[in-house]
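Final report, Chapter 2: Outcomes

The project's central promise was a pipeline that accepts a single protein chain and returns its three-dimensional structure in a standardized token representation, suitable for archiving and comparison. That pipeline is now operational. To close this chapter, we reproduce one record exactly as it appears in the project archive, with the input sequence first and the structure output second.
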Amino acid sequence: MKKIQILASLFLVPAFAWASDAALHIPKSVPYQDETQIQKNVVSQCTSLGSNFSDFISTSLIKNGYSVVKVDPLDITNDIVLDVKITNLMSAGNAFLGHQKSVTAVAKVYKNGQAGPTEVFTRHTMGGFGAGFKGSCTVLDRDTTALANDIAQWYKKQG
């Protein structure tokens, strides 16, 4: 019976290892993991995409009861860090013919420099004819808003 209790406690520890009253550190602006893999027009035109994404993540985490600090540069040795990077992005179409957009991001949790859970998130957006005449950057922001909610819900499930 003692062995079962010890084994059970080993499996329960990771679920609670990330819980803390300390502020969660996130990037002030979510960077591209490899900017050379992102369409050049998106990098040059959507210059606030990363900072908007960080704002959306912060808002979603705060709504879920977390204290958040946006930092630059991100230091994974801080108490608890949620490192988020945009790994892939696709931007096709336009406001007149319709948009086809996709953003993929990876989120990784660190506690005192120790790597924890990692998850990859993707959101796709399409807009019909006219698409409300929104520009590509606005539609990509819509993807990152949805991703921010996904990331906050995933983080909440980590403990």
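Archive annotation: The radius of gyration is 18 Å.
This record, like all others produced under the grant, will remain available to the consortium after the project formally closes.
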